[in-house]
Amino acid sequence: MKIIMLGAPGAGKGTQAKQIAAKFSIPHISTGDIFRANIKENTELGKKAKEYMDQGMLVPDSLTLELIMDRFANADCANGYVLDGFPRTNPQAEALTKALADKGEKIDFAINVEVPDESIVNRMSGRRACLTCGATYHIKYNAPAKENICDTCGEELVLRDDDKPETVLKRLSVYHEQTQPLIDYYKNEGVLREVDGTQDMNKVFDDILAILQ
Ligand code: ADP
Ligand code: ADP
Ligand code: ZN
Predict the structure, then answer these.
(1) In what order do the strands lie in the sheet with 109-114?
(2) Superfamily covering domain 2-115+192-212
(3) What is the mean pLDDT of residues 24-39?
(4) pTM exceeding the 0.85 threshold for the entire prediction
């Protein structure tokens, strides 16, 4: 099964994608996580990506596509995947459709997690991230067992640089301009499904399961 998660930054794509991946035994592929891992390792890709990410801008399509096509070549993608944060622009969506079509494949579902902008800034300021394993928490809605420590790997949690309110507003405007049009793109492909992302995260997951099963 090949699934795309759509939605604003902070809508809950990553939270849901991790659960979908576990449930269906497919990899969770987050381009943001891959960029952050590269920044942490101080790779050439990481250095380039950071300049854009810190400003709340998108990393250029050429860099992003190179990285994701590389990731698709990995053996664990044979039975599908859940994409979180990719595609984010029209050219990325077109490139994905073409790469799949070349192999006679297509996306099965694009799930749009709907959350209004007003809720986003509040959510993001409470988000805490583990840069080692990619786990995500919320100080109020999904707190780790031990304050500021990752449940999974024991690392210290951080407030991402780009989750500061000023940067979140920039990311939201970039989202509306460049990513939101993909909702229509996947509607036209006949694979768009919508869920109400303002609900409790377990209820959101139940709604997604009802779509996928
Ligand atoms: P969120 O989960 O809050 O939406 P992500 O972790 O997906 O954030 O992305 C963080 C940043 O990484 C983005 O603001 C952007 O700079 C960069 N990024 C991630 N995925 C892409 C992509 N597909 N295309 C361009 N830039 C991306
Ligand atoms: P995205 O990947 O779309 O940027 P995340 O999954 O990282 O979003 O979620 C953003 C923040 O909101 C995280 O701190 C997460 O724990 C929290 N969160 C996710 N889903 C919900 C929900 N349904 N209700 C409240 N908080 C949520
Ligand atoms: Zn961790």
Answers:
(1) 28-30, 81-84, 2-6, 109-114, 192-196
(2) P-loop containing nucleotide triphosphate hydrolases (3.40.50.300)
(3) 96
(4) yes
Q: What percent of the chain has pLDDT over 90?
A: 95
Q: How far is CA 148 from CA 88, 143, 156, in A?
A: 30, 9, 6
Ligand lying closest to the C-alpha of residue 155 = 3
Domain residues of the chain, as ranges?
A: 2-115+192-212
Q: What is the pLDDT of residue 121?
A: 87
> What are 9-27's pLDDT values in tens digits?
999 999 999 999 999 999 9
pLDDT digits (tens, 9 = 90+) for 111-138: 999 999 999 988 999 999 999 999 999 9
Residue bearing the CA closest to ligand 2, atom 9: 12
Nearest atom (ligand 1) to Cα of 35? 12
* Tokens of residue 49, six digits: 């990506």
- Ligand 3 ion: residues within 5 Å (CB): 130, 132-133, 135, 150, 152-153, 155
CA of 85 to the centre of ligand 1 (A): 6
Whole-angstrom Cα Rg for the chain = 16
Ligand lying closest to the C-alpha of residue 160: 1
